Amino acid sequence: MPFTLVTEEIVAEKDEFIREIEESGSYSFPPSDEYPISDLTDGKKGMMFALLVARASTGEKKILRGFSGLAKGRCTIPGYVPPCYSANEFTRIAESYDKTIKDLGKRILEGEDLSEERRKTTHEALARLNELYSFADIDSHRFGLDEIGKDLPTGTGDCAGIKVLNQAFRKGWQVEGFIEFYYGKDTAERKSGEIYPPCRSRCEKLIERMLKLSFVYVCDDFAIVDKPAGLLSVPGRGEDKADCVSARFHRLFPSSPEQCFVHRLDMDTSGLLVLARNRQSHRSLSMAFEDRLVRKEYEALLEGRLETMAGTIDLPIRSDPSNRPYQVVDIKNGKRSVTGYKVLGFTTIDGVLCTRVRFFPETGRTHQIRVHSAYGLGHPIKGDRLYGSRKDGERLLLHAALLSFPHPSTGETMTFTSEVPF
User: Fold this and answer.
1) CA 366, chain centre distance (Å)
2) To the nearest whole number, what is the mean pLDDT of the chain?
3) From CA 230, how far away is CA 283, in angstroms rounded?
């Protein structure tokens, strides 16, 4: 789920927002007859809004409002943050192409074969407009839509949540609350006043780039992050290894414990990580891991064909002090390490036959699944540079796909899943 940060304060701000516009009859700030709420309540549909509570470096509280798309064909409304582009430049480019595209459409209706020319002109106009978008990430670094990808859905960068996050990060403000909500005529999909997560199609990758983390879930006690392969969970030795999940997490949640992590994933492994947002939650989550109340499932592609379709690997592991970070199987001195597994199927990657396996670790030793695959099953995980082999540009095909544990405050079983990226 794309990022949201629901707090009592931000919910109260939403309620106050709705009260103000209903009392004034206008959704602009200050109220204006140009933007009556009847447009939203009596028209065909309502509008998505965003609110963000931030804290400036001076300690001053800031409230940002945003709206999705356009309002009556305009990209600005009094009292709301600006779009993520220069409105004047956007209008200039749009108007310069509009006349040409309309003229081509008219000539097509008259029988001329100009459909391909109109398509190319429209594509060129969209490309020029997309170049105008500029966003700020949590470190106030700027980037454009080209960093997100090609052939993006129309409207990428125009959602309410993107606008308020962009404004806060441009200013270097600390985000304390962030929601998107719908207001206006109820539809089958949305109810007026209800909070909804930012849309996946246009916002997910953009928000992930802005936050430098992909959030699956956030609450007052903890957050679930979907870590990409190649990013450290915690800082390593040296300045070149300072960037990691916990460092990025602290930039967004500076009041979280210094040791916010309760477990780790190898740098080469992708998937689900839980991080605590307060000391009490950290203690509770740590105890859940120690008491083996946490269920974890991983998925991997192993080199070769594994003939045994399911089973359990029980091989003790210890570190190799003379060859860190390697772990070795040591029947006498190793720590007990147990991993269940189940074969899901077979596939071929780059001409190599691979077995897709679901792993169910009962213990949590360093490199446990990697060692058990290579030495317990005799089939290393594809792309494993330590216990197998890796080609240039190849990643370790191991992903933490499921994480389940009791909620640190309520005790409710929380289960999270992540789509396997390979």
Assistant:
1) 26
2) 95
3) 28
Its pTM stands at: 0.88
Tokens of 108: 């097509």
CB 274: neighbour CB atoms within 10 A? Answer: 25
Closest CA to 97 of 65, 71, 127, 62: 127
Confidence (pLDDT) at 240? 79
Summarised one tens digit per residue, pLDDT across range 34-44 is 999 999 999 78
Q: What residue has token string 């492994």?
A: 269
Q: Which candidate, 60, 67, 58, 49, places its Cα nearest to that of 13? A: 49
pLDDT of residue 1: 58
Q: Is there a contact between 136 and 170 (Cβ–Cβ < 8 Å)?
A: yes
- Retrieve residue 172's tokens: 């270097």
Tell me the residue type at 85. Y
As beta bridge partners, residue 223 has 218, 275
The mean per-residue pLDDT over the stretch 9-19 comes to: 97
Residue 340: pLDDT over 90: yes
- Residues belonging to the active site: 266
Query: Distance between CA 203 and CA 301 in Å, rounded?
Result: 30
**The one-letter amino acid at 419:** E
* Statement: residue 71 has pLDDT above 90: yes
What residues contact residue 232 under an 8 Å CB cut-off, 6+ apart?
Answer: 241, 243, 244, 245, 267
Give tens-digit pLDDT for 214-266: 999 999 999 999 999 999 999 988 777 899 999 999 999 999 999 999 999 99
**Rounded-to-integer distance, Cα 223 and Cα 216, Å:** 8
